[in-house]
Amino acid sequence: MKELNDLLDAWPIIDFRPPPGFEPQASGSETLTPVAPAPAAAKKSASSDDHDALSGMTFGISYRDHAGEQSRRTITCERAMDSPDGTVILAHCHLREAILAFPLEGIEAITDYRTGETLGDPAGLLAAFGAGTSETPLGQLIERTRASVRMLVHCANADGEFADAERDVILDFIADAAARAPVIQGVSRDHLSRWINALNPTAEQLARDVAHVSGNAEEIARLTKAMSHLIVADGDLADSEVLEMRKLLDAVKAR
Length: 255
Fold this sequence. Notes:
Structural class: alpha+beta
Number of domains: 2
Strand content: 15-25%
Helix content: 40-55%
Order of helices and strands: HEEEEEEEHHHHHHH
């Protein structure tokens, strides 16, 4: 176990890159729009709640508070929860460096932090991930594939780039998982791409992912096959990616 922990500690975690326009201001000139602090019972690590499809997703948001003041934030989601005023998104705010509660109705736009693309209908997008609704097919598929997908995203990021071809390999991996019994249908490939783009796996998450996959021979075989495709997907055989994949598979098989 100590060797596994040492290996996990040595994994390079790719630094978060905020989307254009959402970088924290270096001066004291930024406007800090008041946002409600998260309820005390909800103040826990974002990576500790893997039962919500939103958990660990990082976005740029345009947010308007109840007073009409607008601000732009970078948030890493924990989960959605109901409140007397409607659905709120509990998230780590990179501007405030705190866990805050953002009312869903106040989120006017979402920016994909990998592409810089501003997405329309943020409420619809978040609802697809289960925010304010019952469990969705998308949420079920994320629950089924989260551990392996986070490991694949980590490996794809190892060379500092995330090519479209690498994303396609991961999407194909998810599609294969959806086709397995019980079959999950009606999931948008675009929504899955948004999920993949928003993932920024932490060391804590990766440690749990290794533990989750270990002992599942079928999943390990699928993960190994996906990694072999991922290595050559962008046409560049990066040593850093090969090393990360080897470490990951060794750790999974060693438990």
